[in-house]
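Long-time lurker, first post. I've been practising inverse folding by hand and with some scripts of my own, and I keep getting stuck on stretches where the structure tokens seem ambiguous. Below is the full token string for one chain I'm working on. Before anyone asks, I'm not after the true native sequence, just a reasonable design that respects the backbone. If someone could post their per-position residues I'd love to compare against what I wrote down in my notebook.
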């Protein structure tokens, strides 16, 4: 019996199978490349913002602990009410000496109400709240809307791939004039951010940590902010008890601050 035709047929089928697998793998890689090519800086930023905070109105508690090389730890506790990216209320819970003070954000306008003062006092988003934390770090839930994003480059860190976005402030009223934001390419989790002044000087660096499942997303529950100008000065923001909440527009007014419960 002549087995040569049978062996020849098997070899041909094997070659065709290998070619098919190569073609399939190539097709998949092309599709992946197309997806990466089609993705925009705007969509990356929007997805990262959705992971940081929900789109719906929400309430969250924030504890900020600040340490410096020559001072003991300072601790502040806040309750934040947020509706979209234009309306926020920050209530100071601790320390007891500042309890009752409330910060209102409406658009990019900011006021603080203090029980001992008859009229709210105007603030800036870039003004320091406590430690390394600016008012806008707490009051503004998202980067989208405040910044024009540009995909600067791709970068690998510890075996993971990241998009590096350059965010340029839409005007001088935003918290920072420039931000560099690292976003994980597979999960869209924010990894770290660098914040710059108008002159281009690095002010501070933030790292997003302790991701937990909250309201359907893996969200960072800790942000570590390190001062780039003063070595050893660090603020740690811990977020807890985040929940959706129906927040009527009427509470985001200066007249309502005295009656806020």
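-- Answer (accepted) --
I ran through it position by position. Result:
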């Amino acid at each position: 019996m002549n087995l040569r035709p049978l062996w020849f047929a098997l070899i041909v089928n094997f070659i065709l199978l290998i070619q098919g697998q190569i073609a399939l793998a190539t097709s998949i890689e092309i599709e992946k490349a197309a997806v990466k090519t089609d993705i925009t800086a705007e969509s990356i930023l929007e997805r990262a913002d959705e992971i940081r905070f929900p789109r719906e109105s929400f309430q969250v508690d924030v504890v900020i602990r600040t340490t410096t090389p020559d001072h003991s730890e300072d601790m502040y506790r806040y309750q934040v009410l947020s509706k979209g990216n234009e309306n926020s209320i920050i209530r100071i819970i601790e320390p007891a000496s500042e309890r009752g003070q409330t910060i209102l954000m409406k658009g990019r306008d900011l006021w603080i109400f203090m029980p001992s003062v008859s009229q709210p006092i105007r603030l800036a988003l870039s003004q320091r709240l406590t430690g390394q934390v600016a008012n806008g770090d707490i009051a503004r839930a998202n980067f989208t809307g405040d910044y024009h994003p540009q995909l600067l480059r791709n970068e690998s860190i510890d075996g993971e791939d990241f998009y590096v976005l350059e965010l340029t402030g839409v005007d001088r009223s935003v918290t920072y004039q420039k931000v560099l934001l690292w976003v994980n390419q597979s999960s869209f989790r924010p990894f770290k951010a660098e914040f710059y002044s108008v002159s281009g000087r690095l002010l501070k660096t933030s790292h997003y940590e302790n991701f937990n499942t909250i309201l359907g997303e893996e969200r960072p529950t800790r942000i570590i902010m390190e001062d780039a100008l003063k070595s050893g000065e660090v603020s740690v923001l811990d977020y807890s008890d985040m929940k959706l909440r129906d927040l009527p527009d009427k509470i985001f007014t200066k007249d309502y601050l005295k009656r806020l419960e």
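A couple of notes from the structure itself: The mean pLDDT is 85. The radius of gyration is 25 Å. Happy to go over any region you disagree with.
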